[in-house]
Design a protein that fits this description.
By secondary structure, this protein is of the alpha/beta class. The chain has eleven helices and eight strands.
């Protein structure tokens, strides 16, 4: 197949490298930064630099842009996709994306399948991308009304790229779960390092500090948009987190060892049960 990748940042660049390393498909790269395109071509991450003609010939298009940019790109190029071309995104939030892209697909004769590769790093950009980024990671698909054969094609490509788990769900479940598994940890990490104690943690910190604070090294522009795109679900999850923290705080403040023990034991048991 001819596969077009729109945006060669961390995720787009890693998809390109993984496809080139593990498949025989032709990979065409699109990016607004000419130097990134030349680097990708030189490193063999893409077979050629994208053009309007290449977009018209693509069998699969990965749109690896921020949510609003992804919608804008598909809208501007909707008439260029050939009939039955599979268009997928990699956006971390599906509300506000899936509905609009599905409507564009229905109007213009291409197929849209929502997607979210669950992988990342503290660093961003093409220079941080790698073919092995997705090894044993989870790829979430939000198929909507897409034909099963299109979903199967994307799932097979995900497997070839190294993903170990494929999940299928609605956009509502996706956004609720992502609020819990991805967005809350980023909020927690950022809130944690805002303490003045962070300034002098060296020599007093080890694995616990490192584990909790790791994702505070955040792409602020991207995550601000993701938080706002999912504000209702994220607000609910943050309220749950605050209630749980307040329960522990109150027990500590009251010197209630039995309550602390019960809360910590319940947390341990849940972690042991669900991982």
């Amino acid at each position: 197949m001819q596969i077009a990748i729109i945006g060669l940042g961390l995720i787009g660049g890693s998809i390109a490298k993984a496809l080139k390393a593990n498949t025989t498909h032709t990979v065409v790269g699109f990016d607004r930064d000419e130097n990134v395109l030349l680097d990708a071509l030189f490193l063999g991450a893409i077979d050629r630099i994208g053009s309007t003609t290449a977009l018209r010939e693509a069998d699969v298009v990965y749109v690896c842009l921020y949510p609003e940019d992804a919608v804008a790109f598909v809208r501007e190029n909707a008439e260029r996709f050939k009939p039955r071309c599979i268009v997928t995104d990699v956006c971390g939030i599906k509300g506000g994306v899936c509905g609009r892209l599905a409507a564009l697909a229905a109007e213009n004769g291409f197929v849209y399948v929502g997607g979210h590769p669950m992988a990342g790093k503290e660093r961003s950009g093409f220079e941080a991308s790698e073919a092995g980024l997705f090894y044993n990671a989870s790829y979430i698909f939000v198929p909507g009304d897409a034909p099963q054969d299109a979903v199967k094609t994307l799932a097979e490509l995900a497997g070839a790229m190294g993903f170990g788990t494929i999940q299928y769900c609605t956009q509502q479940k996706h956004d609720r779960m992502i609020a819990y598994t991805s967005q809350v940890p980023h909020v927690l990490a950022c809130a944690y390092v805002m303490s003045p104690r962070c300034d002098e943690h060296n020599g007093f910190s080890a694995g616990s500090y490192r584990d909790v604070s790791r994702v505070a090294k955040i792409n602020a522009e991207l995550w601000a948009d993701l938080f706002l795109s999912n504000r209702e679900e994220l607000t609910d999850e943050l309220s749950e987190l605050i209630r749980n923290i307040e329960s522990i705080r109150t027990a500590v403040e009251d010197g209630d060892r039995e309550k602390i023990l019960a809360l910590l034991s319940a947390a341990r048991e849940k972690k042991e049960k669900f991982g």
